[in-house]
Amino acid sequence: MTVTWERFDDGVVVLTLDDPDRRNAMTAAMGDELAARCDQVAADDTVRAVVLTGTPPAFSAGGDLDMLEDLARRAREEGFDAAPFMRAFYTRFLRIAELPVPVLAAVNGHAVGAGLCVALAADLRVVATTAKLGLNFARLGLHPGMGGTWFLPRLLGPERAAAWLYTGALYDGASAAGQGLALESVEAEEVLPRALELAGEIAASSPVVVRQLKRILQASPQLDLTTALAAEAAAQAVSYGTADLAEGLAAARARRPARFPGR
């Protein structure tokens, strides 16, 4: 088993890439396990947030070298078209981007190539200050994949993203966070506790609202203001009929923390 699952009482689930001897290198088998875990999360209405991390010393070293070498050999010697395989490979790991609850990537060690792309698919990132991060595809002679050319410009802006991609350079976590890649950079041993703290804060919010927000925030870059306002109004109309809002208003009047039932 290369992906483990841990559930906390507050509705936070931790998914861990767990192949430390190989720096959590990404294989099709690992992708299948991650996708299956994501299916469990998606089917459980009591899950409120997900933390994705890796067993130290790395978050993920990226695509498995044996797999890449085999694909390269088959392409050269057999004329093999790797595109369908790669598309399926991406889909397995990027299942985390489709989860209905926020995903926080706790990048507690190096995250390189496709390994970083998986972290970029999360909603929030906390990275280790000294972790090495980068999309080094061009340094390998391989075009970026796993959504790297889509995620990175949206986080860093087109020019900075282009510099990362063209050079394949690696940055430490502090520098990457300073450029906008992550919410925070902290010492490696603090990455998972900080991500769990943030996940707990999310879990304390209305699950109904958080799930609505996840959908709207994903769509908002493609919306004009008029359409966004319509989406907000429709979401608020749903909120007015929920037990979560009734609890939130009662808690506000009583000046106590709300205990949202999630309905």
Number of domains: 2
Averaging pLDDT over every residue, what do you get?
Answer: 97
Q: How far is it from the N-terminal to the C-terminal residue, by CA?
A: 34 Å
How much of the sequence lies in strands comes to: 15-25%
Order of helices and strands: EEHEEHHEEHEEHHHEHEHHHH
Q: Would you write up a description of this structure?
A:
With 263 residues, the chain is of the alpha/beta class. It folds into 2 domains: 3-203, 2-enoyl-CoA Hydratase, Chain A, domain 1 (Alpha-Beta Complex); 207-254. 51% of the residues lie in helices and 16% in strands. The chain contains 12 helices and 10 strands. It has helices at 28-43, 65-78, 83-93, 114-120, 137-140, 148-156, 158-167, 173-178, 188-203, 207-219, 225-240, 243-254, and strands at residues 3-7, 12-17, 49-54, 58-60, 103-107, 110-112, 124-128, 132-134, 171-172, 184-186. The strands form 2 sheets. The chain has a 6-stranded mixed sheet, with helices on both faces. A 4-stranded mixed sheet has the order 4-6-8-9. Helix 1 links the parallel strand 2 and strand 3 (49-54). Helix 10 (207-219) runs antiparallel to helix 11 (225-240). The longest helix is centred in the N-terminal third of the chain and has 16 residues, at 28-43. It is globular, with a radius of gyration of 20 Å. The two termini are 34 Å apart. The model has no long low-confidence stretch (mean pLDDT 97).
